[in-house]
């Protein structure tokens, strides 16, 4: 369940920052891929299935923070144009 909360928070953050839907989708996909890679690193065979429904809250928070940093970088790059 933690994974769904992190994805929802990052999606809401993206909407609040007025990010385009494709940027939000790309960052959410990167978060999911990062979490799945983390599970695979720990040799969990159910990684793709557990990536959305649960898992380590610490890992989700770390990957969610990376997503938030991604939005911040996107915002800075957008303002430079």
TrEMBL record:
Keywords: Membrane, Transmembrane, Transmembrane helix. The chain crosses the membrane at residues 49-77. This is Uncharacterized protein. It comes from Rhodobacter maris. The lineage of its organism: Bacteria, Pseudomonadati, Pseudomonadota, Alphaproteobacteria, Rhodobacterales.
């Amino acid at each position: 369940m933690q994974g769904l909360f992190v994805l929802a928070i990052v999606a809401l953050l993206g909407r609040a920052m007025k990010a385009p839907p494709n940027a939000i989708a790309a960052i959410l996909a990167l978060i999911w891929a990062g979490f799945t890679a983390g599970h695979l690193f720990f040799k969990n065979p159910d990684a793709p299935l557990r990536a959305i429904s649960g898992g380590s809250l610490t890992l989700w928070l770390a990957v969610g923070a990376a997503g938030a940093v991604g939005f911040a970088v996107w915002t800075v790059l957008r303002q430079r144009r």
